[in-house]
Structures are given as structure tokens and as C-alpha cells.
Write a structure and sequence with these properties.
The complex is a heterodimer.
Chain A lengths: L8 H10 L4 H13 L6 E4 L14 H7 L7 E5 L26 H8 L3 E6 L33 H8 L6 E5 L5 H7 L2 E4 L19 E6 L2 H11 L28 E5 L11 H16 L3 E5 L7 H16 L18 H12 L2 H14 L4 H25 L2 E5 L15 H5 L6 H6 L3 E9 L8 E8 L5 H15 L11
Parallel strand pairs in A: 2-3, 2-4, 7-8, 7-9
Antiparallel strand pairs in A: 1-3, 4-6, 5-6, 5-10, 9-11, 10-11
Chain B lengths: L3 H10 L6 H18 L34 H5 L5 E2 L2 E2 L7
Antiparallel strand pairs in B: 1-2
Helix pairs in contact in B: 1-2
The chains are: A alpha/beta, B mainly alpha.
């Protein structure tokens, strides 16, 4: 049954509906594969066999929106999503043992449409990181080269999907946390428009930027997942859903579409590797061959995105993480101390180094006397970047960049230098600040600087807000032309 | 440059106990990151409105209808030290 592990979810659902595969067999094949995972991708996995509790009746709305049911398809879920009764840690020791009393809306909608929880995936603590080395529960290995990182923060989700221990997964993206690991693991990752998917039950990192999205083997599966997960939710007043829903992609050419290449985030991107540039240029050629027009464009303020992001995201995080104080959930340290000392020691013991760094950075940026110089300025830079995108989209349908300036880097290579790690998100952060949707699709293999065997390179396509259907359609056409083999060397026959 | 005294002040605001070694490291790392962040100062931001949120939403309201809240036991269940139907915390002066 190993070939079951090679099917996309859409293909598996077709087999199930044709009677060539049973839903139970599909789930069990993955449950066994997940239990044998050697990549560190999972923090919890479901047992094979029929579900302990029968699936809830499919709600009318999700059935209508989803078209066909997801028929028991296994789903890997980043451990940042609350799952009722199942430990949810966000990769942090401070939440060790936390069993939420409720389930996140995105997970519930997928379950209502028939998906079954396969496992909870490892991640950088509270989604802060670009390598999954900041997990409180150990690192995740990249299935293409186990000495390298899978990217982050949704590194467990990306490694599981690429490593054939999950057919698809959900993750979260604040500054690149879906797209960058998808790029480093050779799969598809989509960050939807801010507001497309409910954040209810998604443990908050930076609330004005966090968004849930799919990590999949192809673009069709990304569309299939998003069309179920998106939608307005009364429990998240910032959720609006995607007007008209999400169409499954069918486009085979790019005739008449205009693609802009922002120099600031492509050829001039900070720290870009030669091999990545080469694959990027080749992919621009593929767009032209499909009938698309490619032209240079300007995003004059985009190179400042990272600076603004590393003020705004830590500032919001410092407020969001104030709740972990040893009172309402998770771990408490030094119960004999006075109240303030209990808070301080609980947080000292429960948070890892990167989380502490961001809390400090955010608290500093919001503190009296510095607010305007850092937070106020960063909010204005955000406006300028959003305006840059608006202007670019009057001339272009889509903007394209490399997803990550580099291929997967070695475990430990960037841990001593926080700034070098932050640069991993150079090309993905501007879209997050503007709130627009962006997808990473695998475009080819490149040698890392310094040599070695070929590693996946992601190609990022960004669209105007709520333009997901068109974006997926264009990505689908390009994906067909590129014809990337998503199987890491270890799983090839 | 963020000095030791500033690090300790911010750590106090953030309710975070830091070891001497962490204070030392934090001072260097935060300074490096803030140097990079200050590249924003090259931009002319006069008259630019701040963006706190990208989706133009205002006053998202729901009908003001009474409904049951969660059962107390369920909310207290994950707490480290629930007692008498409440979250127990140490005294401010232990």
C-alpha cells in the first residue's frame, strides 16, 4: 500500500469515491507511517483503526461549501491549533500538558467536512523561528537532507508532508512560516489573505499578521483545503472569508497575465544564493513559455519590511504572551514565591531563548519613550509597503519572487546569529505586512552555496487581497509546466 | 546600545527573570537587532498614516443575546492550582 502515500489528497478521494480505496485503509496507512516518523515532525499522532468517537455529523454549511466530503482524509495539524482534549503546546514547554477545552475553528471546519486528525506537528516555539530549531521538544529534520533544517516555523507540517508521513497539513504564517518551510521541503505552501481563515483557537503570536493556511503536495490540494477552511467566523471578528469561495484550479496556460518581478525581493534580495537565482530565472522563462508577460516592477519600501516586521511582530507577541503566567493553564514554577516572583520564574523556566528575546524586543519597543521611535515608525513603514503593493497591482496581476533567499541550511548554522535567521523571511515578510495572499510552489533544485546535492527552491507568487482563486489557478498552470518531483531522494523507488 | 540596566528594566516590565548570562547576551543581541531595525530611519515617513490592521473593519457586532458561558470546572481544569472554584495564586507578599 506504499503507493497510497504517494497520492495527493484529491487523487485519494477520487479512489475512495471510485471504491478502489477505503477511507479506513487510507487513514491507517498514514497513521502507521506517522507513528514510524523519524524526522521529529510530530508531537502527537493518532492511533490506526476506526475513530474512538464517531465523526460529528457534517454541518450543512461545510458540506455545501466543500462540495464533496473529505471522506476521512488524514490531516496533520500544527501544534499551535487547539484540539479539544488533545495536548496542544505551540512547541513550548510552558504549555506542556495543556489539553484545550475546545477546538480551533479551522480544524473543526475541516473535521466537519470529513477530515480526520492524524497528528499534531512540531514547530518553533509560539511560531517564532525559521528553522524549527526553537521547538521546546527537539528539532525537525529536512527529509531532503537530514543534516538540514526543514524551515519554520511550520517545519513539522512541511517535513511531514514532504516526508510522506502526512498527505497534507495546516500551518500558520506570520512572516513566512508556511511559505518558507514549504520552499525548503519542496512542497506547496499558501498564506491566504489576512482574514480569509478564522484565527479562533489558533494560539496567538502576532494577531495582526497570523494566518492559517495549507501545506500540500500540489496546488489542487491547497485549493481543496482552503475552500473548506476559509470563511467568516463569529468567534473571530477579524475574519471575513473569501467572497465567492475558492475555485479548484484548472488553468493550463498564463495567456494575458502580467507578472511583476520586484528587484528588491529578487535579484537584489539580501543574502540570495546563486543557485536560487538560477532556478528563479528559469521559472520566469517557464511563465513566458506559458504565455505570461514578465516585467520588472518596483516595491521601493519592501527591503525595509524585515525591520518593520521585527518591531511589530515582537510588540504584538509581547502582549499576547503576557497570558502565560502560571495562573490559568500550563506550567507554574516556584509555587512558594510571592506572586510577581512566581510570574517571573514561571516565564523564565517555560520560555526558550528566542521567545524571551522577542518578548524583550517587543516590550522595549512598546515601552515609554521608545514607542514612537519603533512601533509608531514601523506602523508607518507598513502603510508604505502596503501602498507599494497596491501601486504594483495596478500594472501587474501577480508579483513573483524567490520564497527564500537560500535553500535549506544546516542544523545549527544560524542559531548563534538571530539576525541571520531573521533574514530567511526577507522575501515573505512584505506580503504579510500588506496582508495579501502568497503561495510558494517548488520550482527546481539548487546546490547550496559551497556545494552539495540539490535541494528544493520555492517560487513565490503574490496576488491582491482575496485573489486566492486566481492565484491558485496561475500557480496550477505553472506547476504543471515545471513538473517538479516532490519525492525526496530517500523515498524514491 | 541597550545596556545592562535597560535590559533589567525591560525584563521587569515583561515579568521575565533573566540569569546574569542571559542579561549579558540579551544586551548584545537586542542592540544588534535594533541597529538593523533602525534602517527604517532612512525613510521619509512624514504625513504617513500608521497601519495597525490591514482589513478595513469597524465595529463588528453580534446580537446582544444572553447565552450560557463555559462550565466553571471546564475552564479551571487546565489550571496549575485551582481551588474553591477559582484560580489560586500565591500572595503578593509571600
Amino acid at each position: 500500500m506504499d503507493d497510497v502515500l504517494e497520492l495527493t489528497v484529491a487523487e485519494a478521494l477520487r479512489r475512495i469515491s471510485d471504491g478502489d480505496l477505503s477511507a479506513g485503509e487510507y487513514f491507517d496507512t498514514y497513521a502507521k507511517a506517522a507513528a514510524g516518523d523519524e524526522l521529529g515532525a510530530y508531537l502527537w499522532t493518532a492511533d490506526p483503526g476506526p475513530p474512538a468517537t464517531p465523526p460529528p455529523p457534517e454541518s450543512e454549511t461545510s458540506r455545501r461549501r466543500a462540495g464533496d466530503s473529505l471522506r476521512g482524509a488524514p490531516l496533520a495539524v500544527k501544534d499551535i491549533f487547539c484540539t479539544e482534549g488533545i495536548e496542544t503546546t505551540a512547541g513550548s514547554r510552558i504549555l506542556e500538558g495543556y489539553r484545550p477545552p475546545y477546538t480551533a475553528t479551522a480544524v473543526r471546519k475541516l473535521a466537519d467536512a470529513g477530515a480526520r486528525l492524524l497528528g499534531k506537528t512540531n514547530m518553533d516555539e509560539f511560531a517564532m523561528g525559521s528553522s524549527t530549531e526553537n521547538s521546546g521538544y527537539g528539532p525537525v529534520l529536512n527529509p531532503w537532507d537530514r543534516e538540514r533544517v526543514p524551515g519554520g516555523s511550520s517545519g513539522g507540517s512541511a517535513a511531514a508532508v514532504a516526508g510522506r508521513v502526512a498527505p497534507w497539513a495546516i500551518g500558520t504564517d506570520t512572516g513566512g512560516s508556511i511559505r518558507q518551510p514549504a520552499s525548503l521541503c519542496g512542497i506547496v505552501g499558501l498564506k491566504p489573505t489576512y482574514g480569509a481563515v478564522s484565527r479562533y483557537g489558533m494560539i496567538a503570536f502576532a494577531s495582526s499578521l497570523d494566518q492559517c493556511g495549507p501545506l500540500t503536495r500540489d496546488v489542487t490540494d491547497a485549493a481543496l483545503l482552503l475552500r473548506v477552511a476559509e470563511g467568516r467566523d463569529a468567534c473571530d471578528s477579524t475574519s471575513v472569508g473569501i467572497d465567492g469561495g475558492v475555485e479548484l484550479p484548472s488553468r493550463e496556460n498564463l495567456d494575458g497575465l502580467r507578472f511583476g518581478v520586484p528587484r528588491e525581493l529578487a535579484a537584489d534580495a539580501e543574502g540570495i544564493e546563486a543557485g536560487v537565482s538560477e532556478v528563479f530565472e528559469r521559472t520566469l522563462g517557464a511563465i513566458r513559455e506559458l504565455g505570461g508577460e514578465v516585467d520588472e516592477c518596483e516595491l521601493p519600501n519592501a527591503a525595509h519590511g524585515l525591520s518593520a516586521y521585527y518591531v511589530l511582530a515582537p510588540a504584538e507577541a509581547s502582549a499576547n504572551l503576557a497570558r502565560y503566567d502560571g495562573v490559568r493553564y500550563g506550567q507554574r514554577a516556584d509555587a512558594d514565591a510571592d506572586l510577581i516572583a512566581m510570574y517571573e520564574r514561571t516565564r523564565a523556566a517555560g520560555f526558550g531563548a528566542e521567545v524571551k528575546r522577542r518578548i524583550m524586543l517587543g516590550t522595549y519597543a512598546l515601552s515609554s519613550g521608545y514607542y514612537e521611535a519603533y512601533y509608531g515608525r514601523a506602523q508607518r513603514v507598513r502603510t508604505k509597503i502596503a501602498d507599494d503593493f497596491r501601486a504594483a497591482f495596478t500594472r501587474f496581476d501577480y508579483l513573483v519572487t524567490p520564497t527564500s533567499p537560500t535553500v535549506a541550511f544546516k542544523i545549527g548554522e544560524r542559531t548563534a546569529n538571530p539576525l541571520a535567521m531573521y533574514l530567511s523571511d526577507f522575501c515573505t515578510v512584505p506580503m504579510s505586512l500588506a496582508g495579501i495572499p502568497a503561495i510558494s510552489i517548488p520550482a527546481g533544485l539548487a546546490e547550496p552555496d559551497g556545494g552539495g546535492s540539490g535541494l528544493p527552491v520555492g517560487f513565490q507568487i503574490a496576488a491582491p487581497a482575496f485573489g486566492e482563486s486566481g492565484l491558485l489557478d496561475a500557480a496550477h498552470a505553472l506547476e504543471r509546466a515545471i513538473d517538479f518531483d516532490t519525492r525526496p531522494p530517500g523515498v524514491r523507488p | 546600545m541597550i545596556d545592562r540596566k535597560q535590559v533589567l528594566h525591560v525584563a521587569r516590565l515583561a515579568r521575565l527573570e533573566l540569569s546574569d548570562e542571559e542579561v549579558e547576551r540579551m544586551s548584545g543581541e537586542l542592540s544588534t537587532i535594533l541597529d538593523h531595525v533602525e534602517r527604517m530611519n532612512e525613510l521619509d515617513l512624514d504625513g504617513v498614516e500608521p497601519t495597525s490592521h490591514v482589513v478595513a473593519l469597524e465595529n463588528v457586532l453580534r446580537a446582544d443575546e444572553p447565552r450560557p458561558s463555559w462550565p466553571r470546572e471546564q475552564v479551571l481544569e487546565p489550571a496549575p492550582d485551582p481551588a474553591e472554584g477559582a484560580f489560586r495564586v500565591p500572595s503578593p507578599q509571600a
